[in-house]
Write a structure and sequence with these properties.
The complex is a heterotetramer, with two copies of chain A and two copies of chain B.
Chain A lengths: L1 E4 L5 H9 L7 E8 L10 E6 L3 H16 L4 E7 L1 E3 L4 E9 L2 H18 L2 E6 L4 E3 L4 H12 L3
Parallel strand pairs in A: 1-4
Antiparallel strand pairs in A: 2-6, 3-5, 3-7, 4-6, 7-8
Helix pairs in contact in A: 2-3, 3-4
Chain B lengths: L1 E4 L1 H7 L3 E3 L9 H9 L3 H8 L5 E4 L2 E2 L11 E5 L6
Parallel strand pairs in B: 1-5
Antiparallel strand pairs in B: 1-2, 3-4, 3-5
The chains are: A alpha+beta, B alpha+beta.
Chain lengths: 151, 83, 151, 83
């Protein structure tokens, strides 16, 4: 399931929604991404821009790819857009599987692909002005792992 | 052709997008980029930027050989930074 | 933080407890393990036995090891004991870090080590009688990865 | 010495544990296992089981050369299956 939304989400509720009353799961892996302000007081707000239509398509492709690679009972990707503040939730990915390693690997795969394929862009307002966040080469390296490592 | 800009490409272009008429002889994404780059100062800056601009045709990533036509939705944007 | 308890836990509440109002996190990875009944109707109950005292000690050691290996802002391990039914929550591990890969890797490390080191034992009641679950060699292999793979 | 049994070791021994007097000449976990194995039928079955029994001394995993004394808390149990 894919959701791109302005509103916040409730991690526990989302996990329960697809794990409650299921007896064939065994393992749920969840990743939650938050707006980070490492320096303590350097970021006032973060604006998340996206490409309506293409973003949903890319996320659906990524989900289909994960389901083809691993035995997933369920899968959810939620990503917010709009203006956020440090500590705010940005993204959540959760995968459910009978097997622990399938849940972990598919969740990490989804995050790596989302980071390099889904058309979202972050802009930080430091108080001294706004700046678009630059893409990181390390994210490309992380995503490339999955093309080399055929399961 | 519907053309969309995102993130700093939109800032540089000063608008969200525009409706354009694709000139004669342009049939691929690569040919489009060459033509677009020479259209003006902002366009040259966008295409020449240190961060390589990405292109999507009908909401799918497109390489230089990807075919394009006047009916397509084309987008130019920086490498993505979500998640 | 380590908790060994008979009572159920609330995953969302636990994640929020250590991620709310923190600005230096960025990434939270959570693993949730549930009682699995793959065949559909083969398991009536699962009883979780443990070694009070040693279990908490082993979990604390595992947590300390994860904190030494990765830059973790926070870490929680909750494991239940007693009589559970299919679909019930057994274990939850969550790690918070400024970095996505540290959160993923430390969470997977904690689960791998917990599975092979923490003194818990599962007994399944299939209706035809009770049977202790046998340890799986694949869990040892998973745990061994971390001794070979120095970060 | 306080001796505890868990999981199927407890089932085989028919009790949670016991207080025992460590015989003369037994100073290591390995020596203890040898002595324990010869104490009775259930003990022999536990130590000879296909699933290797683990030993903890004072709530820490102990190999054969680990020292033990009458003041210790010792536990015997199967490979763990939590998580």
């Amino acid at each position: 399931m894919i959701r791109v939304q302005r509103e916040d989400f409730d991690v526990g509720q989302e996990i329960n929604r697809f794990s409650n009353d299921k007896h064939d799961i065994g393992a749920v892996c969840t990743f939650l991404g938050l707006v980070r302000d490492l320096a303590g007081d350097s970021i006032k707000t973060m604006t998340l821009d996206y490409y309506p239509g293409m973003t949903e398509k890319e996320l659906s492709k990524i989900e289909a790819e994960a389901r083809a690679r691993w035995p997933l009972t369920d899968c959810v990707i939620i990503h917010r857009y709009g203006i956020l503040e440090p500590g705010d939730r940005i993204v959540m990915v959760a995968t459910a599987s009978p097997h622990r390693q399938a849940a972990f690997q598919s969740c990490e795969f989804l995050m790596d692909y989302l980071k390099t394929r889904a058309p979202f862009w972050k802009k930080e307002d430091t108080g001294d002005g706004e700046q678009w966040v630059e893409a990181r080469a390390s994210d490309d390296v992380a995503a490339d792992r999955w093309t080399e490592n055929i399961e | 052709m519907k053309l969309f800009y995102f993130a700093w490409v939109r800032d540089k272009m000063g608008r969200d997008g525009e409706q354009i008429q694709l000139p004669e002889g342009i049939h691929t994404a690569g040919e489009f980029i060459e033509w677009f780059k020479d259209r003006g100062t902002a366009e040259a800056e966008v295409i020449g930027a240190s961060e390589m601009v990405k292109m999507a045709v009908n909401q799918e990533y497109a390489g230089p050989s990807h075919p394009i036509s006047d009916d397509d939705e084309v987008a130019l944007f920086p490498p993505v930074t979500g998640g």
